[in-house]
């Protein structure tokens, strides 16, 4: 049995070796060539693996021990680990098959306090390699932030380990230089930092002078912004140990956190003053006051050496503050058209954009896969925005002085004009008071006369409305006779159409259709007029079977309509009311169904009973009624938007009112893309008295017909 297990173990080992040989070998080692690192750095981005040590207790022996179970994770770009507790270990592999053996390893962001490079010694053990001065000949050592290390690279692949620990963000790129290449790089940095610092000092002196002369605190705030921007540039470019030479390393570390927090406070105060947030939105100013207070607390913690606890909050706070300022300024420019803020907005656009990118890296994210700490870009952007901002402040000052002078002149002119107007008003008022008693009596008489005229006007309007109703009744009565004659003539033409040319028959059909449309319109107009007049009684009440109306309505349809309309009678449904008015309701529903459905689609009219209610459903296959119009179609004169069908907007309104005056109702019970169904409900004759509240006759919208 043990022999079998032993064979199985050997089989697994052999298969593992074979599988490993078949797999493609991927090496993360970076080859260094003779031309590398002279004109530009050799970026190690994409060739790094990292390990997070939360406790910070791991040693190099723990990392490289054969019994160690630590696992490094490859990263695709620069190191962006954000604010991490403990230490970050970085592993890189290099070899120089043909190039020089001596190189320089640069930690690009010079704000990480504790950096240690581990290389192999002659015995093959990993030992710490001391940092190099920033430039040849420096006697002050590596300064507060060690970020440059000499490194020997053999022709075979060799691993190196870098341990990083900091109270700031673990964000940096790692580069490889040759000595001459880095000297040129550092010389360019010297020119940049000298130009930036010199410009900032000049701008500070100018703004302090403006602050004293003009007595405007905005210039003092801007001077503080200049100082803070200069200090940030000094730290980002790696010159903190030279400028703050009088401080110890620990004091420099604490000063960085305090400078960042103070920069947030000063920048928010300055932006709020520059863009006048307090005048536009008081609540925004209150919110910024809260942010300033939080940054003040963070600054105290940084001075006490606790910046590692609040660094992430400070970076995120700056991000959100800049985004909020950008949105508010954009609102002022685009929505409120406050073009006076355009120049300062442009001045801040570059530095805010760069700062947001840097703060995004500091908080542990790199969505754009940027492989640089942007220190140089930040310095140039700061200089550009400071110059533009100075121009914007100067423009603002000139505008403010001009506005102040104009306001003084305007106030003076208004004061003089007010004095003159006051004297005139006093004289006029004295004369008006002398005439007030007489004018008061005249006003009373005039209002009494107006009241009499108003009553006369109201009487005239009522008389005119009555005359209008009488005229409408007369016109309707006069139209009925000629229309009846026209209808009879068209019937005769249709009777002899078989012996006449085809066009005579077509014209006769058009005459009859026109007569029916005119008759229907007159009936609807007359019904609407009597409804507005408030008439409440029927003159022609009868009891009849509602099925009988189907025959008379069908007889009144032309041939095309008669072919499309199908009448489905039901059981006996005796109702009580005005037969002619109920015919108008049914005619309106059928005509609507015909007009609002395809020319060849059928229309169904079906009668049914439900207990003591008779129901008449008129269904079509039209496009349906939009949900938001299903109640509006019963309003007087309502016409849905986009309709190309002729109509007066009275049919459904009149039909519903007639139904309700008969103790019934008219509703749209179904409507979709397949068609619509309107339902007329009326009480059966035996149930009329119960539904109408005890009345023996229904109330109506029409009087004598």
What does this structure look like?
The protein has helices at 2-22, 60-64, 179-214, 217-236, 240-243, 249-274, 277-280, 282-303, 307-334, 342-362, 375-495, 502-533, 547-555, 559-564, 579-595, 651-661, 688-691; strands at residues 30-31, 42-43, 48-53, 73-75, 79-80, 87-95, 102-107, 114-120, 126-129, 148-152, 158-165, 171-172, 174-177, 542-545, 565-568, 574-577, 603-610, 613-619, 665-672, 675-683. Strands 1, 3, 4, 6, 8, 9 and 11 form a 7-stranded mixed sheet that branches. A 5-stranded mixed sheet has the order 15-17-18-20-19. It is built from 17 helices and 20 strands. The protein is 55% helix and 15% strand. The chain is of the alpha+beta class. Mean pLDDT is 79; it is low at 1-27 and 694-705. The radius of gyration is 48 Å and the shape is elongated. A hairpin with a 2-residue loop joins strand 17 (603-610) and strand 18. Pfam families: 7TMR-DISM_7TM, 7TMR-DISMED2, HATPase_c, HisKA. Its EC number is 2.7.13.3.
């Amino acid at each position: 049995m043990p022999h079998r297990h032993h064979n199985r173990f050997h089989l697994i080992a052999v298969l593992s070796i074979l599988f490993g040989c078949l797999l493609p070998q991927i090496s993360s080692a970076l080859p260094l060539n003779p031309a590398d690192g002279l004109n530009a750095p050799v970026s190690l981005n994409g060739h790094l693996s990292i390990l997070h040590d939360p406790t910070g207790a791991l040693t190099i022996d723990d990392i490289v021990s054969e019994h160690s179970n630590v696992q490094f994770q490859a990263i695709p770009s620069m190191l962006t680990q954000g604010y991490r507790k403990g230490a970050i270990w970085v592993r890189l592999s290099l070899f120089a098959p043909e190039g020089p053996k001596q190189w320089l390893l640069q930690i690009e962001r010079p704000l990480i306090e504790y950096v240690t490079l581990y290389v192999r010694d002659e015995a093959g053990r990993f030992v710490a390699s001391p940092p190099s001065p920033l430039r040849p000949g420096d006697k002050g050592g590596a300064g507060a932030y060690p970020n440059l290390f000499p490194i020997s690279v053999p022709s075979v692949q060799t691993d190196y380990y870098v341990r990083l620990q900091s109270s700031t963000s673990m964000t940096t790129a790692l580069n490889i230089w040759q000595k001459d290449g880095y000297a040129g790089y550092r010389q360019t940095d010297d020119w940049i930092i000298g130009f930036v610092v010199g410009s900032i000092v000049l701008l500070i002196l100018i703004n302090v002078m403006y602050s004293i002369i003009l007595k405007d605190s905005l210039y003092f705030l801007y001077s503080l912004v200049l100082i803070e921007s200069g200090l940030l540039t000094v730290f980002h470019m790696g010159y903190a140990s030279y400028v703050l030479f009088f401080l110890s390393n620990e004091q420099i570390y604490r000063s960085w956190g305090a400078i960042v927090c103070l920069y947030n406070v000063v920048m928010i105060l300055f932006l709020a003053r520059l863009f006048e947030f307090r005048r536009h939105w008081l609540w925004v100013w209150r919110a910024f006051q809260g942010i300033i207070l939080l940054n003040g607390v963070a600054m105290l913690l940084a001075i006490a050496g606790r910046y590692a606890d609040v660094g992430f909050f400070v970076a995120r706070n700056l991000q959100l503050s800049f985004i909020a300022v950008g949105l508010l300024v954009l609102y002022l420019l685009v929505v409120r058209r406050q073009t006076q803020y355009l120049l300062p907005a442009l001045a801040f656009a570059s530095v805010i954009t760069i700062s947001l990118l840097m703060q995004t890296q500091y908080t542990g994210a790199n969505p754009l896969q940027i492989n640089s700490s942007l220190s140089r870009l930040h310095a140039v952007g700061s200089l550009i925005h400071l110059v533009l901002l100075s121009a914007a402040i100067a423009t603002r000052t000139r505008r403010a002085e001009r506005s102040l002078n104009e306001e003084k002149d305007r106030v003076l002119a208004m004061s003089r004009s007010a004095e003159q107007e006051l004297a005139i008003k006093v004289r006029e008022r004295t004369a008006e008071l002398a005439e007030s008693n007489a004018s008061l009596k005249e006003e009373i008489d005039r209002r009494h006369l107006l009241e009499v005229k108003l009553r006369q006007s109201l009487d005239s309007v009522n008389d005119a409305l009555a005359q209008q109703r009488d005229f409408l009744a007369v016109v309707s009565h006069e139209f009925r006779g000629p229309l009846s004659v026209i209808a009879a003539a068209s019937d005769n033409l249709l009777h002899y159409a078989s012996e006449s040319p085809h066009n005579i028959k077509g014209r006769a059909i058009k005459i009859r259709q026109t007569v029916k449309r005119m008759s229907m319109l007159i009936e609807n107009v007359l019904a609407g007029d009597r409804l507005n007049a408030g008439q409440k009684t029927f003159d022609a009440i009868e009891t009849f079977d509602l099925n009988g109306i189907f025959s008379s309505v069908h007889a009144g349809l032309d041939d095309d309509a008669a072919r499309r309309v199908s009448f489905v009678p039901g059981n006996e449904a005796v109702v009580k009311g005005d037969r002619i008015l109920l015919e108008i309701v049914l005619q309106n529903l059928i005509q609507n169904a015909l007009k609002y459905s395809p020319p060849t689609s059928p229309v169904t009219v079906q009668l049914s009973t439900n207990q003591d209610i008779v129901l008449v459903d008129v269904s079509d296959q039209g496009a349906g009624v939009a949900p938001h119009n299903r109640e509006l179609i019963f309003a007087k004169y309502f016409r849905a938007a986009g309709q190309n069908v002729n109509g007066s907007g009275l049919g459904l309104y009149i039909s519903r009112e007639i139904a309700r005056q008969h103790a019934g109702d008219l509703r749209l019970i179904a409507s979709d893309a397949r068609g619509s169904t309107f339902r007329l409900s009326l009480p059966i004759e035996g149930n009329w008295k119960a539904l109408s509240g005890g009345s023996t006759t229904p109330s109506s919208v029409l009087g004598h017909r």
